């Protein structure tokens, strides 16, 4: 698409073969990291490979590639816990994982609105094209599910006031983000997408202070 035409592979700065060599190096390094973990985590990490392999193809077969991205990208919510504990506390990990999936649906749907005109032309799908003018209602629902899941994860691991304060602040941030979003202006979609770094920072600070 126009926005990504200058990226190295699309612009022809690197060959397809060179990109596969680079990918092989990245995967090899990732395998080295994984093999440093406990056996439970090695198996759990390997279980994500089906998602990793199939995600790039999803925008050609479903209007919900953002959901598959969420399922893939947030696997660390499970793996991070198991790497420390040697197993998963599912009452905590699953709500945290679900919160991450919902968050991905929020920010990547906003991101997808940047390319919707080109996506229609080239025939790929996204939640932006699925939701159309109802996008804000869907984003509001995903945000609510995210916040409720974060609260459930917090309750199940005895989090404290700073954590819930951070979750509440995230709720305010997301509400403002969605309310002011203009889905027909790519530059505003990028600005709102990028502002999700604030969500991550707030949650991290809330977790750290909540534990301290």
Automatic annotation (TrEMBL):
InterPro entries for this protein? HB_polyprenyltransferase-like, Prenyltransferase, UbiA_prenyltransferase, UbiA_sf
> Keywords of this protein's UniProt record, alphabetized?
Isoprene biosynthesis, Membrane, Transferase, Transmembrane, Transmembrane helix
What organism is the protein native to? Ceuthmochares aereus
Supply the NCBIfam families for this chain.
Answer: ubiA_proteo (TIGR01474)
Q: What residue intervals traverse the membrane?
A: 27-55, 67-84, 90-107, 138-155, 193-210
The protein, known as: COQ2 protein
The gene that this protein is the product of is: Coq2
Please give the coiled-coil regions recorded for this protein. Answer: none
One GO cellular component term of this record is: mitochondrial inner membrane
Q: Which family does it belong to?
A: Belongs to the UbiA prenyltransferase family.
Compartment(s): Membrane
Q: Which prosthetic group or cofactor does it need?
A: Mg(2+)
